[in-house]
Amino acid sequence: MYKLIKKCGNARRGEFKTAHGTIQTPVFMNVGTLGVIKGAVSSMDLKEIGCQVELSNTYHLHLRPGDKIIKQMGGLHKFMNWDKPILTDSGGFQVFSLAGIRKIKEEGVYFSSHIDGKRIFMGPEESMQIQSNIASTIAMAFDECIPIPSTREYVEQSVARTVRWLERCKVEIDKLNSLPDTINKNQMLFGINQGATFHDIRAAHAKEIVKMDLDGYAIGGLAVGETHEEMYNTIEAVMEYLPQDKPIYLMGVGTPANILEAVDRGVDFFDCVLPARNGRHGHVFTKEGKINLMNAKFELDGRPIDEGCQCPACRDYSRAYIRHLFKAKEMLAMRLCVLHNLYFYNNMMKEIRDAIDGDYFSQYKEEKLAEWNGKA
């Protein structure tokens, strides 16, 4: 259940009640593909750095350790010791990212496993069954993430099939939620809007999926090759047709600047591997933009990564020490930088929520973009 608390222009401040607690929005979901954040970050760490929602991947968990094993262990919440919301991506993005080893048919997608080459089939029903076994809070519908650029003809065919797949997802999740051995009988379903950068196809698809009255709606298939301007224009084009009383999720986006721009257009949910991936390579976010701790100029820098930051890395360690850890190939370097970057994102979302609550979001956005000056 989504409750819109306040608007500041098009920016929305809301609450989303789930079986695993209430999510304050706008929110950034911390990406733990295999039920863990890469970089030696624990579930307890996530609580300390202000994570509200953890995101895991259906396809990857299906392969390792196996969704049936997760079900036998009591579901992913129990398995990874996390009692807050979890969203599972449907595996649809893998249709896009594994383009060389898959075949799309009406019934679903035939994959070769990226681990051992084993043949796998996943369709809407299989995706829902795997997500039900995982027992996530929010399940994403199975869709095709369309590459950009694609021909109009291909996009139209793909979107029509995605609608048919969504109908099958809804039937299947309703059935699974009613079974006696289902762990989370209140699992929610989000539909995904597709259409590449064709605004009329996006709008028509949004109108179709809104009729299904789902728990939330995602804008998929962006940040896959188009310019930032094309992405923002596409968000604007589709927002008009998505419901105001449901959460809107922009999938796989993005940089701090991308998030500010999308919040300004009405988006509530975000996820991206960027903060954790960057952190593992010594690229960290600060008030002045992104810096690379590998640079020689930080060799004698006794300051924290970001002065004033309250994350575990900044409270206790210097740039010089963390740089030394990277040079010495010590795992602690990755851990500290991932913790810092995720704290930076989670804290930024809190500041965004406060700015909407206080009616100063536009000013906050302008000040942040000026501070970062294109570096974030």
TrEMBL record:
<feature type="region of interest" description="RNA binding">
    <location>
        <begin position="252"/>
        <end position="258"/>
    </location>
</feature>
<dbReference type="InterPro" id="IPR036511">
    <property type="entry name" value="TGT-like_sf"/>
</dbReference>
<comment type="function">
    <text>Catalyzes the base-exchange of a guanine (G) residue with the queuine precursor 7-aminomethyl-7-deazaguanine (PreQ1) at position 34 (anticodon wobble position) in tRNAs with GU(N) anticodons (tRNA-Asp, -Asn, -His and -Tyr). Catalysis occurs through a double-displacement mechanism. The nucleophile active site attacks the C1' of nucleotide 34 to detach the guanine base from the RNA, forming a covalent enzyme-RNA intermediate. The proton acceptor active site deprotonates the incoming PreQ1, allowing a nucleophilic attack on the C1' of the ribose to form the product.</text>
</comment>
<feature type="binding site">
    <location>
        <position position="311"/>
    </location>
    <ligand>
        <name>Zn(2+)</name>
    </ligand>
</feature>
<feature type="binding site">
    <location>
        <begin position="89"/>
        <end position="93"/>
    </location>
    <ligand>
        <name>substrate</name>
    </ligand>
</feature>
<dbReference type="InterPro" id="IPR002616">
    <property type="entry name" value="tRNA_ribo_trans-like"/>
</dbReference>
<feature type="domain" description="tRNA-guanine(15) transglycosylase-like">
    <location>
        <begin position="10"/>
        <end position="372"/>
    </location>
</feature>
<keyword id="KW-0862">Zinc</keyword>
<dbReference type="Pfam" id="PF01702">
    <property type="entry name" value="TGT"/>
</dbReference>
<feature type="binding site">
    <location>
        <position position="143"/>
    </location>
    <ligand>
        <name>substrate</name>
    </ligand>
</feature>
<comment type="subunit">
    <text>Homodimer. Within each dimer, one monomer is responsible for RNA recognition and catalysis, while the other monomer binds to the replacement base PreQ1.</text>
</comment>
<feature type="binding site">
    <location>
        <position position="221"/>
    </location>
    <ligand>
        <name>substrate</name>
    </ligand>
</feature>
<keyword id="KW-0328">Glycosyltransferase</keyword>
<comment type="similarity">
    <text>Belongs to the queuine tRNA-ribosyltransferase family.</text>
</comment>
<feature type="active site" description="Nucleophile">
    <location>
        <position position="271"/>
    </location>
</feature>
<keyword id="KW-0671">Queuosine biosynthesis</keyword>
<dbReference type="InterPro" id="IPR004803">
    <property type="entry name" value="TGT"/>
</dbReference>
<comment type="pathway">
    <text>tRNA modification; tRNA-queuosine biosynthesis.</text>
</comment>
<feature type="binding site">
    <location>
        <position position="309"/>
    </location>
    <ligand>
        <name>Zn(2+)</name>
    </ligand>
</feature>
<dbReference type="InterPro" id="IPR050076">
    <property type="entry name" value="ArchSynthase1/Queuine_TRR"/>
</dbReference>
<feature type="binding site">
    <location>
        <position position="314"/>
    </location>
    <ligand>
        <name>Zn(2+)</name>
    </ligand>
</feature>
<protein>
    <recommendedName>
        <fullName>Queuine tRNA-ribosyltransferase</fullName>
        <ecNumber>2.4.2.29</ecNumber>
    </recommendedName>
</protein>
<feature type="active site" description="Proton acceptor">
    <location>
        <position position="89"/>
    </location>
</feature>
<keyword id="KW-0808">Transferase</keyword>
<keyword id="KW-0819">tRNA processing</keyword>
<keyword id="KW-0479">Metal-binding</keyword>
<feature type="region of interest" description="RNA binding; important for wobble base 34 recognition">
    <location>
        <begin position="276"/>
        <end position="280"/>
    </location>
</feature>
<feature type="binding site">
    <location>
        <position position="194"/>
    </location>
    <ligand>
        <name>substrate</name>
    </ligand>
</feature>
<feature type="binding site">
    <location>
        <position position="340"/>
    </location>
    <ligand>
        <name>Zn(2+)</name>
    </ligand>
</feature>
